[in-house]
Amino acid sequence: MARVDLRACGYVAAYSTITRADARARRLQLTGLYAETRAFVAHCLLHADNRSPLKTPNAPTRTTIDDLIAEALALGDRSKPVPWATGVLGFRAWFDGDSAAAIRFMDDALS
Fold first, then answer.
1. Could you state, in order of their start, the residue ranges of all structural domains in the chain?
2. pLDDT for 47-56, tens place per residue?
3. Overall average pLDDT of the 3-16 stretch
């Protein structure tokens, strides 16, 4: 039996809920909350691991995740900062085997 990463399954399972919250935060112009939901969408896509979560048309790309994090940080700068969003990039670096970048991003996220 194949080992299942429950954490990854949880993020992928949460994708539909997170994207609904993301759309509502945008529609209601809740900038601080929208900054957070952008980061959570990026986190969900990161854990989708080259499979398309739910029925989105394309598998997530590095650029998609980078753009979501950049948007989260920019929105946070206008409202409620979300520096922890760079932690998503830290997880990606760690998954890619780049410990130095992972530590740098995680340190930025936690400071």
1. 6-83
2. 876 665 555 6
3. 67
Kindly state the tokens that stand for 34: 């929208």
- Nearest 5°: the CA angle 56, 37, 111 is 130
Residue among 39, 27, 26, 97 nearest 67 (CA): 39
Question: In the predicted model, is pLDDT for residue 11 greater than 80?
Answer: no
Alpha-carbon separation of residue 62 from 6, 59, 66, 69, 82 (angstroms): 22, 10, 6, 11, 20
pTM score > 0.85 for this model? Answer: no
- Among 42, 94, 103, smallest CA distance to 71 is for 42
| 41 CB-contact burial (10 Å; exposed 0-12 / middle 13-18 / buried 19+) | buried
